[in-house]
Amino acid sequence: MLESTTKNEKQSGVFRLIGIDFQYGRLLKAGPKYWSFVAILGTLMAVGVAAWFTYFTHGGSVMGMRDTNPWGLWFVNYMYYVGLAAGGLVVYASVHLFGAEQFKPLARVAVLQAAVLTMLALLGIVSDMEMPWRAVNMLLSPNPTSPFVYTGSAAGLYMVLCFVDLWVLITGYGGHKLAHTMTLIALPAAIYLHTTTAFVLALNKAKELWNSAVMVPIFLTSATASGVAFLIIFAYIAKLVTPQLKFKSSMFRSLATLLATVIIIDQFLLIVEIITVFWPNSAKPGHTVRLIEFITGPYAWTLLPVMILGLTSFALLAGRKYRHVPLVQLVASGLYVVAIYFKRYALMTMGFSRTPLGQPVPMYVPSLVEVLLAVGIAAFGLLFLTIGIKLLPVEVPEDEHDHGPGEHQPALTQSIDAEPETGVAAL
Amino acid sequence: MAGSSSCSSSHSARHRLARSLVVSVTLALALLVLAPAAPALAGAASSGELLFYPCTSCHPVPASGATRALPNGFKGHGIELEGHDVLGKGDAACVVCHDDPSRDPGKLKLADGSLVDINGDISQVCFRCHYQKYRDFKAGTHGKRKASCVASGCHDPHTPGYIFADGIRPFTGAGFQFKVLPERVAFRPLASPPPAPPVQTPRGFVIFATLGLVAAGGQIFRLVRGRL
Amino acid sequence: MSQHDERTTRSEQHLAEEVQITVTRRNFLKGAATVAAILAAGTLPAFFTAAPAAANAPEGEAAGLEGENPIGEFVKRDGPLNYPGKQVWYADPPGKQKWAMVIDVKACVGCRKCAYACVRENNIGRNSGFTYIQLLEMEDGAIDLEKATTDYNEGGKPGKWYLPVQCMQCAEAPCVYGCPVKATWREPDGIVVIDYNKCISCRNCMIACPYYARHFNWEEPEVPKNEINPKVPLEEKAGVVEKCTFCIQRTRNGLKTACTEACPVGARKFGDLNDPNSEVSVLLKTRRAFRLKEELGTEPVIWYVG
Predict the structure, then answer these.
(1) C13 domain-assigned
(2) Which residue range(s) make up the domain with C87?
């Protein structure tokens, strides 16, 4: 199927490699606004590379982390990206596992999102290591009692899995069966990845605030919710950029319903944790002290937005009447994506509000190098996604089975979408 | 009286009377002198040297009583007695450790009554009462492993609750420089924990980053404004 | 006005479109069962790692209460963790000792001489911003770490007591369990060491340690040339984690740790638990001792006596 030549192969603007028709013609036809956006991302990426270079030459002192705050922005970003990646894939996997056909058109976009975001997460870890070449030690002498090993290896394998899955979806290799099997592996892998990330925090008895079994479900629900929210935003943008994508508004409504459900479960788990800590004499005193300082101390600005934004976004989506409105969906998704970032940041700084010996700790402020490195990595990811949705054939063919160019290759310039374009300027 | 004259009997009777008078007067005078010293002798395990040479007449207790210098000019001869003042009142406390019959304060009494020189193993003197601390000291679990309790510079024998700790403050004579137990007295310790290294942001990076961010910002601005 | 009509048409269209529900109950249950099965399979590695640990655990707490010498019981359970068998390059191989330290908090006056003797002995960078040993000034009457302070300028204050804290060389060290690359392990004689060439600077061990014992070299450690101790590594420590090693270069050669020797009041005792006449064994048998954060089950080998 891969090697068979069809009359579409010689179509202009298409470059075939490893079985995928790269749509570079579509890319070249993109307007100046697209390219200026790419240029912005490229500049930010260059700044990020400069930051990484500075870290290599000057060592750890350029970072804002110290013994009192040994983990910083990079771990917040790791948790966040892993969450987004895992969440997005839940949506796609439900197509195969639960037969939710309405999410079918999202397939390739969701998998692309998952693959790129996991790559960003791994970049975050590697960028924090002062000697990244030593990462090979994790393969040579892994410690089976360290959750870090499980999460690192899970992230690496998951990234490879997602890229392979994307390739399988686009080329149609193995047909429907292989795609189904890969999903059977990918969804539990996504859940496993985020569970192990939660365990990196939860299995530390030295940190009373993290050492709670509810950390794992909180991570899973936050991941799913933020992943779905990000997917909604990304799908709207992809629809804007690549008009060939046929996303029905009913699909967005399903996504919004799913998002609302997961948001409320997420907020519920957070409230459960707070009640357990603040109920008189029910939590370890160190646990309560730290959370009180968190509500009243210098870190209050990180925890309060989580609840405020989270409940607002739920309120926006709760009403049946307005759930279908794209603006409402976008605003709610945006709010929740931001809320979860605050939550990750709050969780990270929560653990370090006091040293293990009970001494108060000065507030962690990420240094300029740290922030720009994170921005650079994010820009790289966005760049990958931006070029990816133009270059890769991310639209799913209309017919039932996900076959590749060997069989039913729809002409790329033809638009068989019955739904009118929702007032979008073609880029 | 030049000598005894045994030739004339009337002469010898007068001599005998004079002799007995002298003896009785001497005895009376002696009794008069001894009387005030009698309380000092009560409970003392030693002979009467203390009658004539009570320790505290030269080494006043407390040390602030040493207002007058000794004939040789030395003024540090007062003794502070704290903790060990429970051993007795006045000079009675001194003779518990310092042996009086030999009139040598450099000899100290051990439990079996024998004497030990002040340059010898005088920890045995402390052992007479503080047998548990001494057992721990010999096992190495009390304080540091030193040659003895007192002469090695840990405990002052007259104010044993005050500890000389090496290098905290210098030991200057009979003064009591450093109090650890039972009452703690504040002193200046070594430096506080060092601060964490400050966050560096190299200038080259700041310049490059500013340029990049300004460029990106400018592009964003133009994109948003719809012009290119 | 046309725009308004367009909008209403659009929203009507959206409302009119029905969401195609294709998830049947059967599909859902099938999917849920598959996910559950795969998740359950994912927990299998935990059993493989937990089984050997359970097999080696002692026969229960009752063994220690039946009048047996509790020190002997501890010594039996004490042992290497993740030991790779290779020798620490700047120290002799381990002997048969079980090192322990006992600190007399009645004697400690908070002078910090131990902290700075350690800095000189172990090539701790003068710019690194940490010391292996920290002194906590505690309030009388409780072991309340939250009310303690490390930043005091007067030692020996009445109404306070002083608690020196450093790496406890735990028998169940959370840092050893948490290191992803086994760069830190516990030697057979009880000392937890770090291989500076293997450490990947992930700082997971610093998160795991409940005693704030592990420190990271954010800058290259700088030691004045005339104060460098040639017996201890210096350059290798740039960019990796370091901590107290019970002066492994001294104790394997029959000396005591630098902090023990520096203490002016003899508050620190270091020795071998296997020797019933060593100072630490005698102290633990005759005095009332406690360990810090005992409830965490890390089994530290530094005791405090009062």
Answers:
(1) no
(2) 70-305
Instruction: Say if residue C50 is in the same domain as residue C100.
Output: no
How distant, in Å, are the alpha carbons of A66, A273, C69 from that of A63? 8, 32, 50
- Per DSSP, the three-state class of C23 is coil
Both C234 and C92 in one domain: the answer is yes
Residues of chain A contacting C177 with CB distance shorter than 8 Å:
143, 145-146
Which ipTM did the prediction report?
0.83
Q: From the CA of A28, how many Å to the nearest CA of chain C?
A: 32
The reply to whether C11 falls in a domain is no
> Residues 6 or more apart from C11 whose CB is under 8 A from it?
A324, A325
Which pairing describes strands C268-272 and C99-104: parallel, antiparallel, or unpaired? Answer: antiparallel
Nearest Cα neighbor of A243 from A73, A425, A74, A108 is A425
Q: Note whether residue C15 is domain-resident.
A: no
A102 touching chain C per CB within 8 A: yes
Indicate whether C205 and C296 sit together in one domain: yes
Sheet of C99-104, strand order? C268-272, C99-104, C302-305, C289-290
Token look-up 């450790």 returns B97
**Is residue C28 located within the same domain as residue C140?**
no
H-assigned helices in A172-284:
175-202, 215-241, 249-278
Summarised one tens digit per residue, pLDDT across range C31-66 is 788 777 766 766 665 555 555 545 444 444 433 333
Say yes or no: C174 and C258 in one domain: yes
Q: Find residues 103-162 of chain C whose CB sits inside 8 Å of chain A.
A: 129-130, 134, 136, 144-150
Query: Kind and range of the H or E element at C270?
Result: strand C268-272
C36 and C156 both lie in a single domain? no
Q: Answer whether B216 sits within 8 Å of A44, measured CB to CB.
A: yes
Taking CB atoms and an 8 Å limit, are B216 and A37 in contact across chains?
A: no
The last residue of one of the domains, among C57, C81, C102, is: C57
Structural domains in chain C (count): 2
Closest among A168, A133, A140 to A56, alpha carbons compared:
A133
Question: Please, which residues bridge with residue A367 across strands?
Answer: none
C176 and C249 both lie in a single domain: yes
Full set of structural domains in chain A with CATH:
65-365 (1.20.1630.10)
- Looking at the domain assignment, is residue C9 inside a domain? no
Q: With an 8 Å Cβ cutoff, are C180 and A249 in contact?
A: no
Average pLDDT estimate for A407-412: 40
Do C201 and C210 meet the contact criterion of CB atoms below 8 Å apart? no
CB contact under 8 A, C148 and A359: yes
**Confidence category of residue A333, pLDDT binned at 50, 70, 90:** very high
Verify that C179 and C49 share a domain, yes or no. no
The yes-or-no verdict on residue A313 having pLDDT over 50 is yes
CB-CB contact of C142 with C159 (8 Å): no
What is the mean pLDDT of the segment spanning A231-242?
Answer: 86
Residues whose CB is less than 8 angstroms from the CB of residue C12 and which lie 6 or more positions away in sequence, other chains included: none
Peptide bond just before B62 cis, omega within 30 deg: yes
Distance from CA of A240 to the nearest CA of B (A): 16
In contact, A13 and A26? CB cutoff 8 Å: yes
Instruction: Note whether A333 and A233 are within 8 A (CB).
Output: yes
Q: Which amino acid is at A5?
A: T
- The answer to whether the beta carbons of residues C261 and C267 sit under 8 Å apart is no
* Average pLDDT for A157-165: 93
In whole angstroms, give the CA distance from residue A78 to residue A268: 24
Looking from the CA of B190 toward its CB, the CA atoms found within 13 Å total 21
Question: Averaged in consecutive runs of 10 residues, what is the pLDDT profile of chain B (228 residues)?
Answer: 50 84 84 60 50 74 68 69 81 81 77 82 86 88 83 75 57 36 68 91 94 92 77
Structure tokens at A106: 């999202």
Q: Which residues of B41-55 are buried (b: 16+ CB within 10 A; e: fewer)?
A: eeebeeeeebbeeeb
